[in-house]
Amino acid sequence: FTPSGHKMRLGRRHSELLVLLARHPEGLTGDELLCCLYEDESVTPVTLRAELARLRRVLGPGVLESRPYRLAVPVESDLSVVERRLESGAVTAAAAAYCGPLLPLSQAPAVARIRRRLADGLRAALIARGDPDLLADWAHAPWGEDDLEVWRALAAARPAPPVLARLAALDAEQGAGPYAT
Fold first, then answer.
1. Which residue of 23, 67, 154, 174 has the fewest C-beta atoms within 10 A of its own C-beta?
2. Do the domain assignments include residue 121?
3. Given this model, what pLDDT does residue 179 score?
């Protein structure tokens, strides 16, 4: 997260809030934030307001506004960088900026959707590009080591023995067989 050029590292809940608020420059009501963050309906608006008050203290004055809750300053994040690069077709640059799944421990429904869309979008762009180096980077990352479709694309682009062996192992593990698509 970067407000006005200052980098900060935040905890999970504050990061989730910032992801959602950055996604909605028009702002979100407390009820909308509750729906985005919690599946457990027993969480009260008071809990959310307390979390937002703590976040406001961390961010400093003039960053987080209310009614509706919104960011008053531009925010640059890894997420926005990857998305912007993907949208412009800069797949190599997007892959270089991707640090892994967005907030991987977050169970907030809206954050999980954003995480899945980002990973799926980048993954699809890598497969479509077919660049063996980019595919290998994804396949050898923790989030890609069991990704059968990426390993198939890598095997098509670079049919080296270690790649083919890993693909055969994944085919066997996942019961897909060598000719599955």
1. 67
2. no
3. 45
Q: Which residues pair with 16 in a beta bridge?
A: none
Residue 28 contacts residue 69 (beta carbons within 8 Å): yes
Q: What is the three-state SS of 146-158? A: CCHHHHHHHHHHC
Neighbours of 70 (CB within 10 A): 15
Phi, then psi, of 179 in degrees rounded to 5 = -110, 10
pLDDT along the chain (181 residues), means of 10: 68 95 96 90 87 93 94 90 98 98 96 98 98 98 97 98 97 74 49
Count up the domains in the chain and report the number: 2
Distance CA(61)–CA(119), nearest Å, equals 33
